[in-house]
């Protein structure tokens, strides 16, 4: 059994853990740190699949470039030259309504002008200006219906299918859109709040608010964790196949046990999805029991389909299908439109999403059945004269944490636990959001907090030279 002591231990070599490590190295290069990762590769939920000239994703397909922390991370990773962008201003999205793909315009004014909902429903949306904030912890569906009316439910459903693969009757608005809920409380109306905020938004050359771009990398999303991990691996600061089994308090710091090591540190960063984090935190929390023992997860499979360009795929990001449409697939990304190098010349790549919170049973189907069900579904929406010439089913191991009943209380518990346990820092999939930008923002905060604690400790060290 190897014993070691470092300033900072990071549990989890997914995007969150690797981001904390790299931010911290930039801020405080003098600190010793180590990242412990259970699997044999970096990146956790982020993994790209390359085969026969197609490039598909097991997990995340991209992130918006409107997050300063993510831009900083790309620079730190040295990936600025590999970035690929699909601007929202150029690429449109579609929603499946009454069995047809309907284009969703990019600006609120154009959305209102488009004939997607009847006139009475548009007037009802404007009625939002006079609706009182909804008390309690409403579901997304209840909240959208209260503020904007029933007609907008399919659109809200499509949005939360696309982000959480979730169920809007279960997701809680305070958990998934805390910023929008703040606007509602502060301005008495979301529309009024957005109009006020609009004045402060960055504008493009024509004076319109600048729309962000969907961002990935030429070699796929996996390039990000790979580039973050590479220098850590070279310096033996990242250990693969190293599962943390127990964490506990030790003197002024923390002790972490794996099958091979007992490691000690001053600052412990748990950069894990909520559920594995909760299991490891049980002994640390003691009498401070969390309000939930686990979050539900939504699992999805990605079915990558390659077609010759006889396929008439409408130009854009892709489409999403609200539940009421009763379709087999949740939606599809038109991946080679967004990022042209993702299919061989003369071919297109579609990545179709299946399963989600409402249909986990579909993931039990064999690959062949999934491919044929998805193809049948797509053929009703898109002109696909020939069957796919490339197929691959990607089944990610983990799911997407669902921010449902009790989640705000869980976040509150997380804050209290960190206050009660100095040197313990929690981030990762499901804590404060689920998207890549959410993870990177939290990682940035944690790197700063660890740096500040170290600076204070260094000041104190003159008085008290021995730490442990
Ligand atoms: C199917 C899917 C699609 C997604 N699509 C998008 C998208 O398009 N855009 C977007 O912004 N986000 C998307 N996301 C979310 C995004 O991938 C996550 O926000 C992000 O990858 C989470 O990173 P993480 O490091 O917090 O967690 P993870 O990626 O889960 O990493 C945690 C790591 O910890 C390791 N680990 C677990 N337990 C232990 C232990 N005991 N000891 C040591 N190591 C341990 C795991 O092996 C893993 O490597 C998607 C997620 C999924 C699953």
CATH homologous superfamily classification of the largest domain: FAD/NAD(P)-binding domain
Radius of gyration: 23 Å
Bound molecules: flavin-adenine dinucleotide
The third-level CATH topology of the largest domain is: FAD/NAD(P)-binding domain
Q: Helix content range of the residues, please?
A: 25-40%
* Structural domain tally: 3
Number of strands: 21
- Which parts are unreliable, with pLDDT below 50 for 5 consecutive residues or more? 462-468
Query: By helix and strand content, what is the structural category?
Result: alpha+beta
Helical region count? 15
* Beta strand %: 15-25%
| Through-space gap between termini | 20 Å
Shape: globular
CATH class of the largest domain, named Alpha Beta
Query: In this structure, how is the largest beta sheet organized?
Result: 7 strands, mixed
Task: State the CATH architecture of the largest domain.
Answer: 3-Layer(bba) Sandwich
Mean pLDDT metric:
93
Task: Write up this protein.
It is a single chain. Helix 1 packs across helix 15, helix 2 (68-77) crosses helix 15 and helix 8 (178-187) crosses helix 9. Mean pLDDT is 93; it is low at 462-468. This protein folds into 3 domains: 2-44 and 222-295 and 403-461, 3-Layer(bba) Sandwich (FAD/NAD(P)-binding domain); 62-67 and 76-89 and 300-395, Protoporphyrinogen oxidase, mitochondrial, domain 2 (Polyamine Oxidase, Chain A, domain 2, Alpha-Beta Complex); 119-198, protoporphyrinogen ix oxidase, domain 3, CATH 1.10.3110.10. Strand 11 (246-250) and strand 12 (253-257) form a beta hairpin. It is 35% helix and 22% strand. It is an alpha+beta fold and 468 residues long. The protein starts with a strand and ends in a 7-residue tail after the last helix. Strands 1, 2, 10, 11, 12, 13 and 21 form a 7-stranded mixed beta sheet that branches. Strands 8-7-16-17-18-15-19 form a 7-stranded mixed beta sheet. The protein is built from 15 helices and 21 strands. The chain is globular, with a radius of gyration of 23 Å. It binds flavin-adenine dinucleotide.
């Amino acid at each position: 059994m190897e014993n070691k002591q470092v300033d900072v231990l990071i549990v989890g070599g997914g995007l969150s853990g690797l981001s904390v490590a790299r931010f911290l190295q930039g801020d405080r290069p003098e600190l010793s740190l180590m990242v412990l990762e259970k699997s044999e590769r970096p990146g956790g939920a982020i993994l790209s699949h390359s085969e026969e000239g197609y490039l598909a994703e097991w997990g995340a397909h991209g992130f918006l470039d409107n997050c300063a922390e993510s831009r900083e991370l790309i620079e730190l990773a040295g990936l600025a030259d590999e970035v690929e962008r699909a601007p929202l201003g150029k690429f449109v999205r579609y929603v499946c309504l009454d069995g047809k793909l309907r284009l969703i315009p990019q600006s609120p004014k154009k959305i209102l002008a488009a004939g997607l909902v009847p006139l009475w429903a548009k007037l009802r949306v404007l009625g939002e200006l006079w609706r009182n904030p909804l008390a309690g912890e409403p579901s997304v569906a209840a909240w959208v219906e209260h503020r904007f009316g029933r007609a907008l439910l399919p659109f809200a459903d499509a949005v939360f299918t696309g982000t959480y693969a979730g169920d809007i009757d279960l997701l809680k608005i305070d958990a998934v859109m805390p910023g929008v809920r703040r606007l509602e409380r502060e301005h008495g109306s979301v529309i009024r709040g957005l109009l006020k905020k609009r004045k402060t938004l960055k504008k493009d050359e024509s004076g319109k608010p600048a729309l962000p771009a969907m961002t990935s990398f030429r070699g796929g999303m996996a390039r990000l964790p790979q580039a973050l991990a590479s220098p850590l691996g070279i310096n033996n600061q990242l250990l693969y196949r190293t599962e943390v089994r127990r964490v506990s308090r030790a003197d002024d710091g923390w002790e972490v046990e794996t099958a091979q090591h007992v490691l000690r540190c001053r600052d412990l960063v748990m950069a894990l999805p909520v559920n594995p984090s909760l299991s490891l935190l049980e002994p640390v929390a003691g009498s401070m029991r969390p309000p939930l023992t686990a979050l539900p997860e939504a699992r999805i499979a990605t079915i990558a389909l390659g077609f010759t360009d006889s396929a008439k795929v409408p130009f854009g990001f892709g489409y999403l299908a609200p539940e009421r449409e009763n379709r087999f697939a949740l939606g599809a990304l038109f991946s080679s439109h967004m990022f042209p190098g993702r299919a061989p010349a003369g071919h297109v790549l579609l990545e179709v999403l299946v399963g989600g919170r409402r249909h986990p049973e579909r993931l039990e189907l064999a690959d062949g059945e999934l491919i044929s069900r998805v193809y049948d579904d797509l053929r009703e929406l898109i002109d696909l004269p020939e069957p796919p010439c490339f197929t691959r089913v990607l089944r990610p191991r983990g799911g997407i944490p669902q921010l449902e009943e009790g989640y705000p209380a869980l976040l509150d518990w997380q804050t209290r636990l960190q206050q009660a346990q100095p040197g313990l820092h929690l981030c990762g999939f499901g804590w404060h959001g689920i998207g890549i930008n959410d993870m990177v923002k939290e990682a940035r905060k944690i790197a700063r907090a660890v740096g500040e604690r170290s600076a204070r400790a260094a000041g104190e060290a003159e008085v008290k030279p021995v730490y442990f």
